[in-house]
Amino acid sequence: MPPAKKEPKEKSTHKLALKGSSKTVTEFFEYCINTILFQRGVYPPEDFTAVKKYGLNMLVSQDDQVKAYIKKIMSQLNKWMLKSKISKLIIVITSKETGEPVERWQFDVQIFGKESKKKGSSKTVDENADSTTEQANEKTDQDVQQEIQSIFRQITASVTFLPMLDGNCTFNVLVYADQDSEVPLEWGDSDAKDIQDAEKVQLRSFSTNNHKVDTLIGGMSVEKRRLPKQKARFGLRALSILTSSASFLVKR
């Protein structure tokens, strides 16, 4: 029997780098959800406890149901990230009384090299040039951590310019995935939960050697009107866990 073919060293190294980068982005989203829930007062302060992460004191929920919900999201998100299937993650804060979205935190995920893989290797010179540029701009873990620190400082400071949320609120998490993504039974298609005439604030971004994440906040406008429900476009699917968040996530 012929010996099994060994995977090229470069390919193996890339897989390890992608795995590490995917974990970094997934962890970032997990702490973002917790931080936003605390800073925006979706849950009372006593539901949170302080932990050390990114060289900062982070607050994470201790509510068992919230923790289980976030854990379920992160588990599936990491699988999609490893397969480069994700383009957006959106945290939607919704009024419990009206069911209308009042705030929308959008995180756009760019995967380096994804488009070039789809287009093939017809432009060898350009690809080599891009590869050289990427290698020259490789980031250390400290570089990435400093960028993430800046984002969390901005999220914390957002309470100074975002309006207070009226009444009881809940939240939901949407994930924009490629059409060919494998979707678990507990996940289903969702509308985009857009907010018409929302006031938007662009926060800082961070990047690893494999991913870039941009952050955008959209708040309810004075008119408080919502766009008609829209499905995700451009070959993407907006997905969320089908279990009603309001049934077990709202607790004030």
Automatic annotation (TrEMBL):
PROSITE patterns linked: HORMA
Keyword Membrane on entry: no
InterPro entries: HORMA_dom, HORMA_dom_sf, Mad2-like
Example of a GO biological process term: mitotic spindle assembly checkpoint signaling
GO cellular component: cytoplasm; kinetochore; mitotic checkpoint complex; nucleoplasm
Gene3D superfamilies with a match to the protein in the record: HORMA domain (3.30.900.10)
Subcellular location per the Swiss-Prot or TrEMBL entry: Nucleus
Assigned keywords, A-Z: Cell cycle, Cell division, Mitosis, Nucleus
Region of interest called Disordered, as start-end residue ranges on this chain: 120-142
Residue stretches making up the HORMA domain: 19-217
SUPFAM superfamilies: The spindle assembly checkpoint protein mad2
Family: Belongs to the MAD2 family.
Protein name, entry field: Mitotic spindle checkpoint component mad2
